[in-house]
Amino acid sequence: MQTQPYPFRPSRLAQALVVALFAAPLAHAQTTDLGSVQAGADTGGVRAAAHKQHSAPAQAITQAPLAARQPQSVISRHVIENTQAASANYSDIINIAPSVVSVDPNGPGMMESQGGPTIRGFQDGQYNVTFDGIPWGDSNDFTHHTTSYFMQQDIGDTVVDRGPGDASNIGPATFGGTVALHSKDPLDKPGTTLYGTVGSFGTRLLGAEFDTGVMKNYGDLRAFIDYRQLRSDGYLSNAGLKRQNLFIKAERPVGDSSLLTFVAMKNDLTQHVPYGVTSYPYVAPQPGTGGTVAQSMGTLPGQLQVFGPSYGLSGNPNSQGYSAYNYDNITTDFEYVDLKTSAGDLQIDNKVYTYAYYHNGYNGVDPNGGGCNYGTLNCLTPDGTFPAGQDTPNNADGTVPGQAMYMNYRSWGDLLRTEQRVGPGRVKAGLWYDHQSNGRYQGETNISTGAVTAIDRLMTDTLTQAQPYVEYAWNATPALVVTPGLKYAYFRRSIDATVNQKTGTALSYAQTWTKLLPAIDLHYTFAPNWTAYAQAAKGFLAPNLKDFFVADPAVSSAGVAPEQTTNYQVGSTWKSRRMTLSGDIYAIDFSNQVQSQKIGGVTYFRNLGKTTYRGIEAEGTYYVGSGVSVYANAAYNKATVSGSGLQVDGVPKTTEALGLVYNDGPWYASAITKFVGSRHGASTDSVAGSVALYPLAAYHVTNLALNYTAQGDGALPKGAKLGVQLNNVFDATDVYAYAGQTGNGIPLFWTIPGRSVMLNFSYPFN
Question: Boundaries of each TonB-dependent receptor plug domain copy (predicted)?
Fold first, then answer.
């Protein structure tokens, strides 16, 4: 862990704090802070570094490791800092991976991804997201808030696992895959780095990082503190945000065989959140079971046609969609203490953690459902710009109806992992435990007067999860490792509601679900640079909290079946200095699949029943020479609803990516294009005779980046960095996703954010 120790110099800490304080009132930065990237970055000579730089593994935008036992794509810190916007969320980072689709419609990091991120068509909430191995998310539906936790400056390598993994892969929704975020390490040398970005949409970020280096007077402790502030008006109209984020990581050896790690994150966010736009020819109520495509079409233009693809919220204070009425204040934190230790051949890793999400939200009762001026003015007598009888007018006295809510939760948990050699293999065993308590409220309000007119929900709910596991990695031959394993999943959900959502009545209820989840995989090494694997595993997801929003969950048919999958996958990985190449084939049988959509800003769910997923994926990089490499990936994903025979809503059958990278000495340049195939936004039902609605055309987005990192032989100090990014070069602003419906059933859509330019800098003080 440690290299050359350095004495602690208090003046550097003071310097960092002063820089951070001056940074606070300013705002926005871009990805490229090479001076604060990796510990031990200067470990080799110039010629050795150049040799490593000039290779396919070093330049690959995504790649699978040779040790992979399921389809897996690794995105390195080097790629993240050189290709991603400083404001980017992890959802922006993983978008390049095979079978992943993710768009932030307000610009990178300016809004939670909408219509995604999806992995092979699995929605958020059907796969895990972990940070340093710890699963996190909302207990009510297992989803994640991409703008409320970690920023890209503190994320190290990011891994997209497209599958359930082995028995040791813990979390509430492993069957859909895992997005594994890893924090970067503190540097071995002390220093302070100031970094920033300014660019399109009024975006600006300013931040500072202070690294202590290895402090020999404090037991070889090393740590970093990173603070930044982001402000942006956003691509969508009247949809600005402000964000402050603080991240701390510290590591200290304990004795000769243990390492103690502490991580803490604090994030404050204020955002104005749009809901999507209406669009011709679909300004008509969405048809239900037995409906037709013709019934989904109307003659009126939509907000998209009248105001353009960047329409977000209204600037009219008489509208329920007025920006000042539609905003969130969100505060989050995430902390853990980790002790890794070795006792002979026994390895123990134990993390004790907590994280919290405190959300106060306000909105018009039906922001895009008004009857006048294409929904920007919610009047009493529609003016013909909205379907007759399908609008949500203001109150009879002209005041504006709205809603106020809070959702406040905290999780406490422990993640214990052990590993030891036993016979011709290694035994891995562990336990994950998590308890989350969530307080939720929503009231109907009169925005004009501030009065609360009704209470929609007032409740406390809890989710307790426990997953013990054991597996044995058996070295059957020098080349073949067979790993059978078993995991036991325990979920207990409770609700204590004074006013239950949907029913409006009181409810006190709890239910427990359990499941044994077997897994087995084979990993074969053909050569040091060529491996293959095969995997079979069961997946399980406990029912959503929405199943308790009924009068009696114990007898309701709405209540109960968990989502379950059986997954089969085979694949192979090959690497050399010239080329990285990997591919896989998968089959997933899904029972009781649940899909979400929003109506009037409220998320609803429906059960699709049985679905099947079949696909093939590949990714590779070829190093051409002279610092140039070519990258590509492609995926075919067929996701079929058994009852209707239709492709699952929103799931493209194909995704592809192409990239060109130049990385030589101080220069890094890239051109990356993501292609997403055609799909449909919704369907009338999941039974025979159902029809697909709202066809969405295929689209592609191209991003360019150019970065220069000083080598210390000129006016700039070593590690100083200047860069420019051009996102969405060809200004594609297509409708890319279905956004749900207004309160009276008019469909809403999301568009791709338009072209943007970001200028970035990073300046170290060492």
Answer: 70-177
Query: Tens digit of pLDDT for each residue in 38-66?
Result: 333 333 344 455 558 899 999 999 999 99
Among 751, 747, 612, 655, which Cα is nearest to 693's?
A: 747
In tens, the pLDDT along 609-640 reads 688 999 999 999 999 999 999 999 999 999 99
- Angle at alpha carbon of residue 716, lines to 713 and 721, rounded to 5°: 110
Query: Rounded CA gap, 259 and 252, in Å?
Result: 6
Predicted confidence at residue 607, as pLDDT, reads 59
Task: Give 70-108 as a DSSP string.
Answer: S-EEEE-HHHHHHHS-TT--HHHHHTTSTTEE---TTST
Amino acid at 47: R
Say if residue 85's pLDDT is above 80.
yes
Q: Please say whether the dihedral angle defined by the alpha carbons of residues 585, 587, 593 and 599, taken in this order, is positive or negative.
A: positive
Give the number of other CB atoms < 10 A from CB of residue 444.
Answer: 15
Length of the chain equals 766
**Per CATH, which fold does 10-327+374-381+519-540+571-603+610-765 belong to?**
Maltoporin; Chain A (2.40.170)
Q: Quick count: other Cβ atoms within 10 Å of Cβ 145? A: 19
Q: Where are the domains of the chain?
A: 10-327+374-381+519-540+571-603+610-765
Residue that the structure tokens 């590690």 belong to: 719
Strand order of the sheet with strand 72-75? 72-75, 155-161, 178-183, 128-131, 134-135
CA distances from 393 to 243, 306, 370, 445, 599 (A): 33, 20, 6, 15, 16
Taking the CA atoms of 152, 158, 163 and 164 in sequence, report the sign of the dihedral they define. Answer: negative
Give the three-state DSSP class for 591: strand
* H-type alpha helices, 84-181: 90-94
Tokens of residue 137, six digits: 């998310």
The backbone torsions φ and ψ at residue 316, rounded to the nearest 5 degrees and listed phi first, read -100, 115
| Helix/strand/coil for 281 | coil
Question: Do strands 128-131 and 178-183 pair parallel, antiparallel, or not at all (unpaired)?
Answer: parallel
**Helix, strand, coil share of the chain (percent; to 5):** 10, 50, 40
